[in-house]
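Reopening this ticket.

The earlier resolution said the output was attached, but the attachment link was broken on my side. Pasting everything inline this time so it's all in one place.
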Amino acid sequence: MMKYLLLPVALLIMWSLLNDSISPGQMLLGGALAIFFTWAAGSLRPKRAYPKKVLTAMGLAGRVFYDVARSNVSVFRIIWRPTRGKITSGFMTIPLSMKDPHGLAVLACILSYTPGSVWVGLSPENVLTLHVLDLKDESEWVHLVHTRYEAPLKEIFE
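Inline output:
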């Protein structure tokens, strides 16, 4: 029961904060909208996610946090000291074995949140197109995506 009330309650709290009011009328309108939008959003997600291995997910979150911080420093160096070497940005493709749409969505977020890389697209053949700001070695990126991100996401979602 609690998992069904989480989204409407969160939406009602957000409504109250945005309107800066907890008057009965605002709470009634916010509650009605929260219930309606929760019901409407249910049809947009036909497949539910059932994540497993919480410890793996926590380890992945820590690894992503570390990678984002490290990548911020690297991109800062590239932008502020471009004379050190030639920057070679480019597109590359990486074949993926993960099929779960939730895992793929998390992978897209991870790669796009990390400065210096952007998820460009996914082909029907499950081939990821990635843009990298400083692309020196494609095989290193393929290895990084497969071992550092895709493998834990497969454990969590598949």
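Reporter confirms the inline version is readable. Residues 9 and 41 are 15 Å apart (CA to CA). The two ends are 25 Å apart (CA to CA).
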